[in-house]
Design brief:
This protein has 121 residues and is mainly alpha-helical. 74% of the residues lie in helices and 0% in strands.
Length: 121
């Protein structure tokens, strides 16, 4: 079992959640049960799946949770792009979070690749 709280990939995921919650307050109140709910749930899913994957003894299961995590990460990015296109959030307000999302995607993909290499033998 891995200690997920020591992993940079999990810590970065927590930072994404924090920033998404801050940005979600900029969405109109009528989006409370729409886009706001969707983007915050997807953001929470990123580090949550990393943590759950760390509890698994099988590398195959661990890899699967990393794949779910990156899927949630791409959901967050898509939903933020939608908020941007609808002019709920300004483009310059999204630069930092988009940078974090790109970093997180690289980290998760790298980890998935390393897991694949381990399982190839």
């Amino acid at each position: 079992m891995r200690d997920f709280k020591k992993l940079d990939i999990w810590k970065n995921g927590i930072e994404i959640v924090t920033q998404v919650y801050q940005l979600s307050h900029k969405l109109p109140s009528e989006e409370k049960f729409g886009l706001r709910s969707q983007v915050t749930r997807a953001a929470v899913s990123v580090p949550s799946n990393i943590a759950e994957g760390c509890s698994r003894n099988s590398e195959v299961e661990f890899k699967r949770f990393m794949e779910i995590s990156i899927g949630s990460l791409f959901e967050v990015e898509t939903q933020l792009i939608i908020a941007q296109k609808l002019e709920f959030i300004k483009t310059d307000e999204l630069k930092t979070i988009f940078s974090l999302i790109q970093k997180q995607a690289r980290m998760i993909n790298s980890l998935i690749s390393k897991i694949k290499i381990v399982n190839a033998f």
